[in-house]
Design goal:
The protein is an alpha/beta fold. It has 16 helices and 23 strands.
C-alpha cells in the first residue's frame, strides 16, 4: 500500500522563464492569451469525473478589462455539494488502496504537463483570470505549482520510509493511512499554485477531496482540474464545485464523514469554520484535521545601518508585486530617522516608473486588483488617509474602475504607529511607513511585535550583524517566514516552507513534510514472529 522502495528523489526547482522579447516562451504566451480571449468558456463543475452544468451561470471577466467576457461558470447548490461528497466517498476505498507509486505517477505527470504542453495555458489563464503579469503568473501557476506536485511526491516518499525499529522476534511497521472520510479544500484567488496544492496534497496522501475555489479563481482552477484528469486522476478523487461559502460549510461541516479542511483565506472565515467544526464535533467519525493559512500584516524593519537602495527595492517589490495581493506582501515598514527621508524620496521616485495596465502588455508592472469589492475596500483606506491628521500620502493615491480595477501603488506616511493602516490587513497596493528614532531600535522591535495580531512574514534590513541577530531573536514569534536583507515575499517550495502563526494560521508549512503529516493517520502494526505458548515469565520460576 505504501511502498517505500520507490524512491522519488528530491527534484530541483522548476526554472523560471524570462519572457524576454523575441523568446519562444513569450511568443507562445502571447498566442495563448489571444486564443483564450477569442472564445467564451462554458465552465462546468466536475463531480465524480462528470461535467455538471446548472444553468445558473456567473460571468468571468479580466479584472483589468471588465468589459470583456472570458466565459462563465455554473454555480452549484447544496445538492451539488452533497453529490460531490458522495462521489468522493464512493471513490475513497479504491483510491486509498492504490499503491503509492501509481498515485505518485499521476501527480508527476500533471507536473510534466504543466511544465511542457500546458505551460503557456496555465500562465495565460492566471494572467487573464487574476490579472497577474507574465512574471508573476510564471512563478505561480507554472513554477510553484509544478514544484508543489514534484516536491510533495518526494516528501511523502520520505514519510513512508520512516519506520520503527524491531526487537528480536518482532517485526514492527508504520502504515500511513489516509483520513477516514473526505477532505474539504477551500482555495483563494491570489495564487493558482495554492489552488492546485491544497486539494492535491491531501489527495496525494490517499484522501478524497471536495474542492471549492474562490469564484475569482475558477478560470484557472477548471483548467487545472482538466490537467489532473488528463494525467489520470480517477473519477471522484477530487471533485470541483462552485458553491458559495456558507452553503459549502452547511453541508460539509454537518457531515459525519468530514475528516479535515485545507484552507487559505481570511482570518474571519477560518475562525467561523473552526467554531462550526467545534460545535459539530460529536457528529464526526474522527476528529477533523484543521489546516489553514489566513492573513498577514507583514512588516519590513529597517535598521539605521541599512543600504537605502536595498530598502527601496525590497519595499517596491515586496509591497506592490501583484498589486500587494499576496498574504506575504509588505504592508507596514519601520524606517530609522537617519535615512527615512532618503528612503521615502527614492521610493516615491521608483513608483513613478512603474507602468500600470493590462497583463497582455508586458511592459506593465502593475495590473488590476481582483474585483470591485476588493477595489472599494482598498480605496476606502486611501480616502480615509487623505483626510486623517498626522497622515500623508507620499506616493500614488489615485484609482479608477472605469476600464478595470486599477489602484496606483500607494505609500502612506504616518506619525502614529497604531494608525489603522499600520494594523489592519488591506490586501492591496498600499504600504504604510512609520519613522522611528534611530536610537530606539530595540524599543521599535517590541512595537513591531505587538502591533499586529498576524504573524505571517517579515523582514529585517541591516548591515549591522548585531542588529540582525537582535531582530531575529526579538521577532521570533512575529513571523513564520522571516527574511534577512530581502523583501518578505517569494517563498520557494523546497527552500522556504510557508506559513505563519497567531492570526495568520496553523503554520503547517505548505511545501514541506509538515503539511503532509496532517493528511495522514498512522497505524502501528506489530507482528510477533514466534508467539509465546505459555503465560509464565522467567521470574515466576522457583529458585
Amino acid at each position: 500500500m505504501h511502498n517505500a522502495y520507490f524512491d522519488f528523489a528530491a527534484p530541483g526547482n522548476e526554472p523560471v522563464m524570462s519572457f524576454a522579447p523575441g523568446s519562444p516562451e513569450r511568443a507562445a504566451l502571447k498566442k495563448q492569451l489571444a486564443a483564450f480571449k477569442s472564445q467564451e468558456m462554458d465552465i462546468p463543475m466536475y463531480i465524480g469525473g462528470k461535467e455538471v452544468r446548472t444553468g445558473n451561470t456567473v460571468d468571468i471577466r479580466p479584472p483589468h478589462e471588465i468589459k470583456h467576457k472570458l466565459g462563465h461558470f455554473h454555480q452549484g447548490t447544496a445538492s451539488h455539494v452533497t453529490d460531490a461528497i458522495n462521489a468522493a466517498l464512493k471513490a475513497r476505498q479504491q483510491w486509498a488502496d492504490t499503491p503509492w507509486e501509481h498515485r505518485a505517477g499521476i501527480f508527476l505527470k500533471a507536473a510534466e504537463l504543466l511544465a511542457t504542453k500546458y505551460r503557456a495555458h496555465t500562465n495565460a489563464a492566471t494572467m487573464l483570470g487574476q490579472s497577474k503579469n507574465a512574471y508573476q503568473a510564471e512563478i505561480d501557476s507554472a513554477c510553484e505549482l509544478i514544484d508543489f506536485l514534484r516536491f510533495n511526491v518526494h516528501y511523502l516518499t520520505e514519510i513512508y520510509r520512516q519506520q520503527p525499529v524491531s526487537s528480536p522476534g518482532v517485526h514492527n511497521r508504520l502504515e500511513y493511512r489516509p483520513l477516514e472520510g473526505f477532505v474539504l479544500a477551500v482555495t483563494p484567488f491570489n495564487f493558482s499554485a495554492i489552488g492546485g496544492n491544497l486539494p492535491t496534497s491531501a489527495a496525494m496522501c490517499g484522501n478524497v477531496v471536495v474542492w471549492k475555489p474562490a469564484n475569482t479563481q475558477v478560470y484557472h482552477a477548471s483548467f487545472f482540474m482538466k490537467v489532473l484528469m488528463e494525467a489520470g486522476l480517477p473519477d471522484g478523487v477530487i471533485n470541483l464545485v462552485y458553491a458559495d461559502g456558507p452553503t459549502i460549510g452547511d453541508v460539509c461541516f454537518a457531515h459525519p464523514d468530514f475528516a479535515g479542511i485545507h484552507f487559505t483565506g481570511s482570518t474571519g472565515v477560518f475562525q467561523t469554520m473552526w467554531k462550526t467544526i467545534g460545535n459539530n464535533i460529536a457528529k464526526y467519525k474522527t476528529y477533523p484535521r484543521i489546516v489553514g493559512e489566513t492573513g498577514g500584516k507583514d512588516f519590513v524593519m529597517v535598521h539605521q545601518s541599512a543600504d537605502v537602495d536595498t530598502v527601496v527595492t525590497a519595499l517596491a517589490r515586496g509591497a506592490f508585486e501583484f498589486q500587494g495581493q499576496k498574504c506575504s506582501a509588505a504592508s507596514r515598514a519601520y524606517l530609522p530617522s537617519n535615512i527615512a527621508d532618503e528612503i521615502k524620496s527614492k521610493l516615491a521616485a521608483t513608483l513613478k516608473t512603474m507602468k500600470m495596465g493590462t497583463t497582455e502588455d508586458f511592459s506593465n508592472f502593475i495590473n488590476a486588483v481582483i474585483d470591485e469589492r476588493s477595489f472599494d475596500k482598498i480605496t476606502s483606506y486611501i480616502d480615509n488617509a487623505k483626510k486623517a491628521d498626522g497622515v500623508e500620502i507620499i506616493a500614488g493615491g489615485n484609482y479608477s474602475k472605469t476600464e478595470g480595477y486599477f489602484i496606483e501603488p500607494t505609500v502612506i506616511a504616518t506619525n502614529d504607529p497604531t494608525y489603522v493602516t499600520m494594523c489592519e490587513e488591506i490586501f492591496g497596493p498600499v504600504l504604510t511607513v512609520y519613522t522611528y528614532d534611530a536610537a530606539k531600535y530595540e524599543e521599535t522591535l517590541e512595537l513591531v511585535d505587538r502591533t499586529s495580531t498576524y504573524a505571517l512574514t517579515g523582514s529585517i534590513i541591516a548591515q549591522d550583524r548585531y542588529a540582525v541577530e537582535l531582530a531575529t531573536r526579538k521577532l521570533v514569534n512575529a513571523a513564520g517566514n522571516f527574511y534577512i536583507n530581502d523583501k518578505p515575499t517569494g517563498a520557494v517550495v523546497g527552500q522556504q516552507p510557508f506559513g505563519g502563526a497567531r492570526a495568520s494560521g496553523t503554520n503547517d508549512k505548505a511545501g514541506s513534510q509538515l503539511n503532509l503529516y496532517r493528511w495522514l493517520s498512522a497505524r502501528t502494526v506489530k507482528e510477533t514472529l514466534v508467539p509465546p505458548a505459555d503465560y509464565r515469565y522467567p521470574f515466576l520460576q522457583e529458585a
